[in-house]
């Protein structure tokens, strides 16, 4: 499924080296000021664009980032959790009992994830504290590995008659 709306520009995504307590959209144009950097970097043979470096300051901490471009054919989607009407369809008492045993993570009941119309560009900025991430950053390696895994699990298996 492809998003057809051309009204909204693609959203630049950011992968920060820390977490936020807020889930959901933020007014990044007001609260996030990203400055392109002119520092030189080494040539790499990964997804990393050698020219696209950025810097910003968040909560008094300098962050340096590199722009990572996904291979062609990949699409990014923004999903949000929505409340749904309470029904007993598909009720599984054993599953609910298992969920109550795991007190570490709160379970969102009566909700479903749905895709929004927000477009995500084909690149994102990978941030690191104080210095830019190297082309060998483990998060880039995880992306490369996940693409390989996703391609493998979605490849049709031929059925022999």
UniProtKB/TrEMBL annotation:
Stretches the record annotates as Disordered: 85-109
Which GO cellular component does the record give, naming just one?
Answer: ribonuclease H2 complex
Q: Which InterPro entries match?
A: RNase_H2_suC
A GO BP entry? RNA catabolic process
- What is the name of this protein? Uncharacterized protein
Species this protein is from? Absidia glauca
């Amino acid at each position: 499924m492809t998003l057809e709306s051309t009204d909204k520009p693609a959203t630049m995504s950011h992968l920060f080296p820390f977490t936020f307590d807020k889930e959901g959209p933020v007014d990044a144009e007001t609260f996030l000021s990203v400055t392109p950097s002119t520092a030189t970097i080494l040539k790499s043979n990964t997804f990393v664009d050698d020219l696209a470096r950025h810097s910003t300051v968040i909560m008094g901490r300098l962050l340096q980032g590199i722009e990572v471009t996904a291979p062609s054919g990949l699409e990014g989607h923004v999903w949000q959790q929505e409340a749904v009407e309470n029904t007993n369809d598909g009720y599984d008492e054993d599953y609910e009992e298992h969920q109550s045993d795991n007190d570490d993570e709160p379970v969102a009941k009566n909700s479903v994830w749905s895709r929004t119309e927000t477009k995500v560009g084909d690149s994102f900025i990978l941030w690191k504290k104080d210095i830019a991430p190297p082309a060998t950053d483990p998060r880039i390696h995880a992306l490369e590995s996940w693409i390989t895994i996703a391609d493998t699990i979605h490849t049709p298996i031929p059925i022999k008659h």
